[in-house]
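Q: Given only this backbone (273 positions), what sequence would you predict?
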């Protein structure tokens, strides 16, 4: 049951993130990204159906949320019975006015802080959804009607949980690297960028209850910009580490030799125009 719930939510998250990422890459390449020889239009149209097939993202994410609500109920009765990735739902709700443990801008780079902030968001959304559903049923709505009326929050709960799962597993994988590994620095920076960028992009979820203050939000923005400067020089090596071949990419822009404009010019010889 845990495996099904987690994989359902991760399928939805990863499919949507990847499709959006391909489009971001195309836009970042300007007019060149629109060319067929860039490979990006073909890649996008080949992949974007993943948000629908093998479980529509909005439908399959509901499986995750049903399990989250079950864990919330079970955690209140038997706190030690929950699976590891769901154990945070057994913790008592924070007191009103609780705030993120961020006293200075650099705290936004602390992995434990980032995970705690994401955890707070996920737990809050699940608790509020549970209260919303209970209130609707108490007001006379059927279970089905209450659920359908809360579908936006249902999908939000699954998304928040799965972002937390990705960040937490990313962090544990980096922490398990051998001491002195040359991978630790780049992956630490990438982990911090992923988490801070996600929090900034979905900032409303974190400030709505005052958990992240206005000042902390400004610090967050500054840290994202600083981390971009750190990661940018590593971007090409990080992508090359996947070992994609020129044949596989089939792109004039993603060539291993970097001869982009020669490849673009050569491609015009193959045009029927």
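A: Predicted residues:
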């Amino acid at each position: 049951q845990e495996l099904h719930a987690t994989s359902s939510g991760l399928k939805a998250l990863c499919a949507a993130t990847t499709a959006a990422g391909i489009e971001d890459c195309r836009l970042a390449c300007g007019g060149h990204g629109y060319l067929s020889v860039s490979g990006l239009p073909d890649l996008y149209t080949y992949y974007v159906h993943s948000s629908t097939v093998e479980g529509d993202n909005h439908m399959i994410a509901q499986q995750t949320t049903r399990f989250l609500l079950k864990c919330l109920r079970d955690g209140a009765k038997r706190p030690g019975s929950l699976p590891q990735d769901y154990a945070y739902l057994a913790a008592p709700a924070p007191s009103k006015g609780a705030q993120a443990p961020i006293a200075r801008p650099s705290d936004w780079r602390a992995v434990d802080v980032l995970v705690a902030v994401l955890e707070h968001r996920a737990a809050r959304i699940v608790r509020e959804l549970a209260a919303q559903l209970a209130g609707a049923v108490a007001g006379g709505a059927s279970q089905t009607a209450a659920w359908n009326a809360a579908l936006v929050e249902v999908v939000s709960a699954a998304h928040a949980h799965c972002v937390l799962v990705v960040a937490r597993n990313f962090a544990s994988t980096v922490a398990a690297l051998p001491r002195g590994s040359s991978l630790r620095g780049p992956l630490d920076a990438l982990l911090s960028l992923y988490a801070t960028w996600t929090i900034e992009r979905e900032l409303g979820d974190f400030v709505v209850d005052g958990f992240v203050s206005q000042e902390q939000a400004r610090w967050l923005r500054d840290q994202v910009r600083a981390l971009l400067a750190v990661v940018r020089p590593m971007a090409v090596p990080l992508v090359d580490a996947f070992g994609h071949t020129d044949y596989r990419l089939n792109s004039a822009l993603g060539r291993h030799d970097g001869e982009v404009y020669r490849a673009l010019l050569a491609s015009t010889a193959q045009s029927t125009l």
